[in-house]
Every structure is written in C-alpha cells, then in structure tokens.
Amino acid sequence: MPKCSTFPKTLKHTLQLTQTQTLLSYSSSNFPHPPPVSPQIFKSTTSHKWGSYKLGDLSFYSLIENLSSTFDFHSLELLLHRMKRENRVFIEKNFILMFKAYGKAHLPEKALDLFHRMGAEFHCRQTVKSFNSVLNVVIQEGHFNRALEFYSHVIDSNSFNHVHPNGLTFNLVIKALCRLGLVDQAVEVFRGISVRNCVPDSYTYSTLMHGLCSVGRIDEAVSLLDEMQIEGTFPNPVAFNVLISALCKKGDLVRASKLVDNMFLKGCVPNEVTYNSLVHGLCLKGKLEKAVSLLNRMVSNKCVPNDVTFGTLVDGFVKHGRALDGVRVLVSLEEKGHRGNEFIYSSLISGLFKEGKYERGMQLWKEMVEKGCEPNTIVYSALIDGLCREGKTDEAKEFLLEMKNKGQIPNSFTYSSLMWGYFEAGDNHKAILVWKEMTDNNCNHHEVCYSILINGLCKNGRLKEALMVWKQMLSRGIKLDVVAYSSMIHGFCNAQLLEQGIKLFHQMLCHEPELQPDVVTYNILLNAFCTKNSVSRAIDILNTMLDQGCDPDFITCEIFLKTLRDNMDPPQDGREFLDELVVRLIKRQRTVGASNIIEVMLQKFLLLKPSTWALAVQQLCKPTKVRKTISECWSRLHC
C-alpha cells in the first residue's frame, strides 16, 4: 500500500524529467540543432505574430515552473528561445514565476532585463502584476534607488501605458522611499494615491508610519493611526506595533500603554512583538521589575515569550549592572522548558566579567557547556574579552585556539579583545602578533582594531609606528573614530609635540558631530598644557570645551585643582575656579554638568558661594523641572 500511495508522484516526476531531457537536450554539443519533438506532445497550428495556444503549451508551462523552482536559469533561457522559435504563446504568470526565482537567487538585474524582454522579444504584454513582481524583487534586495528609477521609467513611459499602478505598487514605492529616508516624498505619494483611484490599505499606513517613526516623527505617525480609522481602514496589529515600538524606544511608556489599551478596544490582541517592545522600553528606563511583571502577564495572556523577549530582559539587567539577576532570569527561562541562546549567554558572560565577577562568569561558561549548548563565535568572543579584562591573556589565547579547533572562526571583535589585553599587560610584541594573525586569517581590520593598535602603540611610546598605522588607515579609506584621534593626540602630547596634537584636535572640530572631541580628548590636552604650566592655553581649551557642549568631569576638575595647588604662587585651593565654572554651566542651562562639579566640590569640602547656591537651587528646582519630575513619578505608578 505505501508504494501505491507514492506512485503518482513518482510517475509525474519521471514524465517531467523525460520532457525536460527531450526539450533541452539540443543544448548539448552533440546536437547543433534541436532534435524533432514528438508530435504526441506538441502539435503545430497556424499562428499570427502573438502566437496561439497549442496542445503542447501546457507542457512548456510546466517546465517553466519546474526549472524556476530549481533556479536552472540556463535551461530556462534555452526553453524560452525554443518557445519563441515555435511561436508558442507566452503567458504572464510564467514570467512572474521566473521573476520570483530571480528574486530568491538575488539576481534583480536579471528580473529587470526579462521584464523589458517580455513584450519586445516574447510578445507577452506586461500588466501591473508582472510590474509589481519585479518591483518587489528589486526592493527586497535593498536596491531602493534602482526600484524608484524602474517605477518612474515604466509609469512615465508611453511604451508601458497599459501598466496602471495599483495599491500594491504604491505600497512598494512608499516602502522604498521610507527606507531611503525620503519620508516627505513618501507622504506625497501617499496623498496622491486617491488621484490614481486607489485606496490605501493597512499595509500602506503601517509602512508610512514606520517611515515617519524612523526619522523621529512619531506624533505624525500617531495622527496617521487616527486618520486611518476615520477613513474606515481597520488598523491591524502591525500598525499598532510600529507605533508602540517607536514610543518605547523613545521612552514614552505612558503613550505606549495607552496604545495597547486602544488595541484591545479595537479587537486587536497584543502579540509577542507588542510585548517585546514594551519589555524593551521598560528595560531602557531601568524598570526591570516591571519588565519581569509584564513577562508574567504575557504568559497569563497565553502569549508565549520567545528568545527575543528573554534576550531583551537579560540584556536589560546586564546593562544596568545586574548581571546576577540576569542569570536568575536565565534559570527561570530554563525551568519553563526554554534554552538560553548564544545572545543570552554572551550578554551574561560579558556582563559578569565587566562587574568583576570572574568566578561566576567562568561557572556560567562551564554550565553552558555541560548543558550541551555549543558555544559559537559570539560566546567565545565574550569569554575572551572578559578574560582579557581580568588580565588573563594567556588563558584567553588558549580559548582562541580551542574555538579555532572546534571550527569557530574568530572575528574582528575576538582579535581586538585579545590585542587590547596584551597591550594592557604591556606585552606589545604579542599584541602585534595578534594583528598579524588577523591578516594571515583574512580577518578585516575595522576601525576599532586600528584604534586599539594606535592607542596601544602611543601608550607605550611608539609614536612613529602609531603614525605609520594612522597613515595606513587614511590610505585605505578606513573611518577614523574618536578613540583613534584621542590616542594620537595623547601620543603627541607624551612626546612633547603639543602643536601637532592641537592640529589633530582642530581637525576633529571640523568633522561631523560623531567625530567631535569628547571629555577624554579635552582632558588629554588640558593635562598636557597644565603640566607645561601653560594655564592660559588650558583655559582656552576649557572655553572651547564648554562652547562645544562638552561638560567637564571629575578628571577635568582634578587637573585644574592640582595645577592651582602646585603651580600657583601663592597656592590656591581651586574653590573660586570651580565656583565660577558652576555659574557658567548653570547660565548655559547645563544642570547635569553643574551638578557634577558641585558634587566634586562637596567631596573636597570646597563650599560654594551663597549666591551660587541660590542660583543652583533656583535652576535645579524650576517649576517646569518639578512638573517634569512629578510627571515621571506618575508614569512609574501607571506603567
């Protein structure tokens, strides 16, 4: 009986194989011309330019379907040319099958080429169906500009006046525009949909909402939800989840909670995506106990938490310095029948090491291995990084060899951690050997690797070698980061080449915001000038620091206090200097920076002037700030 049940499928496969071999065998070098096809399969009839249906056409269509599913594009091309010579009828749905196959094979240009050949070469008229199919293939590959060019070419061309865009077309165009950050143009297209006698659906609204949220225009996206309901389009969970996720990332949990209530009112049941967004938002705000409570409520609502849920919660505990609580979440996860994945283990191991809990980190590693969870590159890298932080570089090197023996390929992060560890241990030779090993293993040196190498060389007084690496970065077009700049400036300052350090500093000021000097950079220069007793130039740097929106920290205060105490005649305790700094920060409404300086002064028993105290109290206790504090308290109560 089992053999009988599988016979039809086997017979069909045999017939298809026989037809394929018969039709395509002429591609072999033994057959310069196509062999005759059995008249029992195909029967010729008279036809005009566009061709006409024949008895064998369905067999050709079946072959197109089979060859598309196996991505045999060479045979497909041969088959299309044979059909053309025999004046067979080409139908659009077969081309759509081929377009989808090109999409799955990541060949969008082939799909575009075939679309243009449909009418010109194979006399098959394109409609919006085939147009949308190709447009989707190009967008799925992330070629958004190419997709928009294709859209404009077809819609604006007289050659394709029979292709009329529909709702799906506009959804795809809006998606491409949003992914390019061209949200205003996406809104313009959205507003023009009705002119084309189309009606936006829930997917249209959701796509535009996502685009608006991605550029921070959340209020407009929320308004779009209201408009959607007024226009009679029923919002689906995707639309709600887009807004809830954006609000949670922003930290606006009150509005996110209201949207969840609105979901229930509209009959939309929150799913795991909804809960994951809320858990993520709570973790960002440090409300970890509420995140755990929400997790329990998720389970009670019969919504099963997934790896993302648990991973987000564990990562939240780790980021707030509570890795041990994260371990407890993992234990709870395993008690419920789930298994920790590589993301969870790497996050916990890394967190435990960063908190100085070396023994617990190693214990978790052993538990993971004992449970049969094979560590991958991510987990190995977290362990190696943790060991290097503990100064156990030789042990880290052993694990690097182990991971390679087990077939796990080290990445840039793995090597960077080990290289940093050797530099911190003062073993420059081994650090450079790690760099060379990366090259030998064809592992790309990204900007972090270069920054670690430059920083390590500069710290050890090897400025010439650091300069060579710096020039190599520039020649290879590798993006310089703040660490690389600060390291080179530090190297110049240590070599008593302050003017070259200042030159690099001014280069940073001319760069985009992400490359602006940070407090570490400023402290390097301040310390260099104060050490040389160039207090006036140090003050100039401090003024630039304040003008650029960078607040002084504890180290900044220590640099100036030491200089005023050791290099001034008579020595000064620095009270007036710091007092004035507090006033300047308050007047610029930099309350966080001012608070930090006040904290330093209190620790040093340096009292503020009464007038400065009054100004500080007035600024820190403004009615708007009080209202904001009260609002935050209410948010905690209701969230």
TrEMBL record:
SUPFAM superfamilies: HCP-like (SSF81901). PPR repeats lie at residues 166-200, 201-235, 236-270, 271-305, 306-340, 341-375, 376-410, 411-445, 446-480, 481-515, 518-552. GO terms for cellular component: chloroplast. GO terms for biological process: chloroplast-nucleus signaling pathway; mitochondria-nucleus signaling pathway. The keyword Transcription regulation does not apply. Gene3D superfamilies: Tetratricopeptide repeat domain. Keywords: Repeat. Belongs to the PPR family. P subfamily. NCBIfam families: PPR. This is Pentatricopeptide repeat-containing protein.
